[in-house]
Design brief:
Layout: H1 2-12, E1 18-21, H2 25-28, E2 33-36, H3 57-71, E3 76-85, E4 97-98, E5 100-113, E6 119-123, E7 128-132, H4 146-158, E8 166-172, H5 182-197, H6 204-219, H7 226-233, E9 238-243, E10 248-253, E11 259-269, H8 273-290, H9 301-306, H10 313-338, H11 341-358, H12 364-373, E12 379-384, E13 390-398, H13 402-417, E14 422-425, E15 433-435
Parallel strand pairs: 6-8
Antiparallel strand pairs: 1-2, 3-5, 3-15, 4-9, 5-8, 6-7, 9-10, 11-13, 11-14, 12-13
Helix pairs in contact: 4-5, 4-6, 5-6, 5-7, 6-7, 8-10, 10-11
The chain binds 2-deoxy-2-fluoro-alpha-D-galactopyranose.
2-deoxy-2-fluoro-alpha-D-galactopyranose binds next to helix 7.
């Protein structure tokens, strides 16, 4: 009842939500109307994003306690999730399609106002603190967590959003470099927390663009919008078929019944992944220019064939991968609508092949994990996830097979690389939100 009142009071506000019908629900349960509030302003007490099941409560308690001990006030608490991506890798910055979902792991951040001439950020997991002045913000050493926080603050200042000094303490339960986007989760937690603390009245859609710009300008990665979008707009038990040109999504209820998704972390992150990422983006933009289209999203294989002799064969393959991967995302959404998990699995495997041989963003450890799944018919599909060069694979596996596969893969991975892989079960969660 309380929830219904909250929803009605939210609807009374002047903006109009965009209603989307999830056709997949006809396959996985009763047809259901879902709400996508991309431009909904944020404000207490209304949150259309509800509670997130199985969030890490002990982490939240730890972050709150550290904040209280350090800053001696009661914090505003935010949870911002990481994301998985079923299919559609390196398509987002080509204005293409992706299929991510927010998960119940991510960043928990505590915020409070600060009566001082500077602000302070405290990374609890690293036990590191940084003080900074809001009037002289600049990127710090490359690779530092501080750039994610300061970058968001700088983007808010650039837009003349009225913020004053503040404290933040944060920690997470996804390792950096795992390909689950702890970076977008952190950026979103900062913009969401400051929006709330200083009553800036940004919509979720405005916030994700600020997070993305922070990553471009302070972290130095020219990322697309997938991670920030999924983390901010996630819906419990749903994946989002996101059109990265319109930045609007269609939620698909995910219930794979006898199957489920698990993540396997290689626990490696190879050097140069950021520069390789930016290089890939620039290749795609150059080829889109040659094709005279806005982005590779607008090109077909036929179009690409026509300029084949104007590009290197390596770059031809990269552009071809993007065009094919975009098509795979659409095929995957149809497979989900018809409940065809075998087809979904095949598309996931094909995505990995493209990332490995055409786009060349995989690595030995990821390829090994994917190759091992092919020995097991109970695993329908597997592929690397995220930017690549390390991090996790995502695996579509029969539930009955999980325990024996975990034992198997842990053993063979350790034998091959003399290091452990980590296995995560995740549930699909709501987007960035205030927690009690
Ligand atoms: C990273 C980026 F941040 C995303 O925008 C996306 O490009 C992804 O790599 C690859 O699909 O996570």
């Amino acid at each position: 009842m309380k929830c219904l009142i909250n929803v009605l009071s939210g609807l009374k506000r002047k903006c109009i939500p965009h209603f989307v019908f999830s056709s997949s629900a006809t396959v996985y349960g009763n047809p259901k109307t879902n709400l996508i509030y991309e431009n909904f302003p944020i404000g207490r007490p209304f949150s259309p994003y509800g509670n997130t099941k199985k969030m890490n409560i002990s982490l939240a308690n730890k972050i709150r306690a550290r904040f209280q001990d350090t800053f001696e006030t009661e914090p505003l608490m935010i949870f911002s999730p990481g994301r998985i991506n079923i299919i559609g890798e390196h398509t987002d910055y080509n204005d293409g399609f992706v299929f991510p979902a927010a998960v119940n792991k991510g960043i928990i951040a505590a915020f409070g106002k600060r009566d001082s001439n500077d602000s302070m950020a405290y990374a609890v997991d690293k036990n590191e603190k940084v003080k900074f002045s809001l009037n002289s913000l600049k990127p710090l050493a490359k690779g530092s967590w501080k750039n994610y926080v300061i970058g968001v603050v700088a983007e808010l200042k650039k837009r003349n959003k009225g913020i004053s000094n503040f404290n933040i303490a944060f920690g997470g339960d996804i390792p950096g470099g795992a390909g689950i986007s702890s970076s977008a989760a952190l950026e979103n937690s900062v913009v969401f927390g400051l929006n709330e603390l200083f009553d800036i009245k940004l919509s979720r859609q405005e916030m994700i663009l600020i997070s993305q710009k922070a990553e471009h300008n302070y972290v130095g990665v020219k990322c697309g919008i997938m991670d920030q979008y999924a983390s901010m707009h996630g819906i419990e038990n749903h994946a989002l078929l996101l059109d990265c040109r319109t930045v609007k999504s269609k939620p698909f209820k995910i219930n794979f019944k006898e199957h489920t998704l698990i993540l396997i972390n290689t626990n490696v992150k190879h050097r140069l992944s950021d520069s390789a990422y930016n290089d890939r983006r620039s290749v795609c933009e150059t080829i889109a220019g040659l094709l005279n289209v806005k982005a590779l999203r607008d090109a077909s294989e036929f179009d690409l064939e026509a300029i084949k002799n104007k590009v290197t064969s390596e770059n031809y393959q990269k552009a071809l991968y993007v065009i094919q991967e975009n098509n795979r995302v659409i095929e995957a959404s149809k497979a989900l609508e018809t409940g065809n998990l075998e087809l979904l699995g095949k598309l996931i495997y094909a995505s990995h092949e493209g990332l490995r041989h055409q786009y060349k963003v995989s690595c030995e450890e990821l390829d090994f994990l994917v190759d091992q799944t092919k020995l097991n018919p109970q695993i329908l599909g597997a592929r690397m996830m995220g930017g690549g060069f390390g991090g996790c694979t995502i695996n579509l596996i029969a539930r009955t097979e999980i325990e024996s596969f975990k034992t198997f893969i842990s053993k063979v991975y350790k034998k091959k690389f003399n290091t452990n892989c980590s296995i995560y079960n995740v549930s699909l969660s709501n987007g960035t939100k205030i927690i009690e």
